[in-house]
Amino acid sequence: MKEQLKIAGAFIGVIVGAGFASGRELLLFFVDFGLWGLLGALVSAALFTFLGMALAGLGNRLQAASHKDVVYAICGRYLGLFVDLLITFFMFAVTVVMLAGGGALLEQQFAIPALTGSVLVTLLVVAVVCLDVQKVILLIGAVTPFLILIATAIALYAVFTRELSFAALNQVASQQQAGTSHWLLGAFLYVSYNIVAGAPILAILGGSARLEKTAIWGGVLGGAALGGLMLVMSAGLLSRLDTVADLPMPMLSIASEISPALGVIMCVIIFGMIVNTAVGTLYSFLARLLPAGTRSFRLGSVAAGVAAFICSLIGFISLVGQVYPFFGYLGFVLMLAVLIGWLRLGRAKRVLAVQREV
């Protein structure tokens, strides 16, 4: 059970970054569609559960040491190269969004200019990546369970203390500019770009698991937990859509409404998730291009950090609305490949079992 929880926790930790924890992504892909968006959240929950199971299981069957092993096995040589590059550069894009998110967070909670906040987050992330302090990453990642508990409590508070009916809130939602043209497309896009970020860690941890059953259940638990949290948070945000629609950190706003102290606690937790995600994605991006632990890797960390900071100046809300949908469409390739690969390897396993019986 411990190994299963490790896989599930790592999957959740990668996905729950600035956009998820703050609620901004959920507004864009679910809440802005009103009650249909909640149905979209259910669809996404099912997809997360299946893909978590499939990727962890494939990683174990292939004894994957990196996402390349799984990608090339299920996509082939040429498509595999495209998906490999997609995952690699999405890691950089997520880093950019996290740096912008850090600036937006500090500005909303403490009135620190977003530019200054992004500089501070960039310096911290680059320092951790250069030092390769794995204990720091694990320590920050430990805030994930607290985020789940507090975010769930805040969302339920918002649902039960809402001032408008869901019919009225649905009308408010119809006036918002959602991230896609249809709620079902939004549900698929949300899973698509998130699974691009989650595929590397699922493949690696699935490959290191002792049993395929353990890897599969770890993926299932992680996907189901993500789906449940996503649904509850979406319902909470819909309950306050009339006041949080234009905020970069809507969950933080609801937490501060409950209590200023809870707002500070939520701010610290989201900040930890931002740093954790940014460190993980920047490290993954660089490790794919440069040998880790070398002088060139550290210099590359500084250069990539500066480039990511410059790109983050576009702004958090704009980046979430532009970067994630773009990679979401590209990520459909990976989702389809995972489905086909899972079915193909499963069929091969059944054929092998029949041959052994004969």
From TrEMBL:
Keywords of the record: Membrane, Transmembrane, Transmembrane helix
Q: Which InterPro entries match?
A: YkvI-like (IPR038728)
Segments traversing the membrane: 33-58, 79-104, 110-131, 138-160, 180-203, 215-238, 258-285, 297-320, 326-345
Q: Kindly indicate whether the keyword Transmembrane belongs to this entry.
A: yes
Q: Does the keyword Transit peptide apply?
A: no
Can you say what this protein is called?
Answer: Membrane protein YkvI
